[in-house]
Amino acid sequence: MRPLEGKVAVVTGGARGIGRATALRFAKDGAAISVWDLNAEGAQETVRLIEQAGGRAMACVGDAAEANQIARSAAATRKAYGPVNILVNNAGMVGFYKFLSITEEMWDRMMQVNIKGPFLCTKEFLPEMLEAGWGRIINISSSSAQTGAKSMAHYVASKGGVIGLTRALAIELATTGVTVNNIPPGFVDTPMLRESPVDVDAFAQTTPMKRPGRPEDIAGAAAWLASEDGGYVTGQTISVNGGRFLT
Question: Residue 202 burial by CB count (10 A; 0-12/13-18/19+): exposed, middle or buried?
């Protein structure tokens, strides 16, 4: 039996990069996948790749930081597959701006997407996890929240909030069968990274492994946290970063 057989997983930001890799890995491990993203074409492509490999998946197009759109996508997911057991809060945005150029509107949008979104999605699915006595919440944070990063104050603050939310929820839910953990990717070769002002290949040479990570590296850690093998792990920051930040 595959480790996630019979489970239902929602992966936000599943149209590309880490979200797509996680959706593909969870499907390979037996879960039915609901791929959430604003990018309809990308979400459908993730579904196509899962189905091509023999898995089950559906796409929900919407904003994972808007309560009404979350409710709509959640209802469609439950109608197709039943209660959700696993939530990966991966949808997010990034920004590279010096602190004094960050406007209040830019700050608010970053917080809405990167921290309010996971809060709302978790609120949506936690009741059914508690009713089942089993659930996995996996938040994708950022290594920048561990190390700091210049010209990213609003992004770093939002991802630091994700780490704090993870710890608080983990303690609150420790006796319920629901675990809450976070993975802070460190320099992973995704479309978002390639679209940033970072020289990916040059920066890779400054890291211990001399290469960027792969989305599949994050997906592997998430798959372990989602499985029964990860059932005694909660409140943890699982740093998948090639040695960039050590704890």
Answer: exposed
What would the two tokens of residue 143 be?
Answer: 């290594």
pLDDT digits (tens, 9 = 90+) for 93-115: 999 999 999 999 999 999 999 99
- Residue among 81, 97, 155, 232 flagged as catalytic: 155
Contact 35, 12 (CB under 8 A): no
Which runs of E-coded beta strand occur in 29-167? 32-37, 57-61, 86-89, 135-140
pTM of the model: 0.95
Per-residue pLDDT tens over the stretch 168-213: 999 999 999 999 999 999 888 887 778 777 787 887 788 888 888 8
- Taking only the tens place, the pLDDT of each residue in 220-230 is 999 999 999 99
Q: What is the largest CA-CA distance in the chain?
A: 54
Residue 123, classified by CB atoms within 10 Å of its CB into exposed (0-12), middle (13-18) or buried (19+), is: exposed
Considering the segment(s) 8-188+217-230 as one domain, its CATH architecture is: 3-Layer(aba) Sandwich (3.40)
Residue 155 annotated among the catalytic residues of the structure: yes
Q: Exposure of 136 by Cβ count < 10 A (0-12 exposed, 13-18 middle, 19+ buried)?
A: buried
What is the DSSP code (8-state) at residue 123? H
DSSP single-letter state for residue 8: E
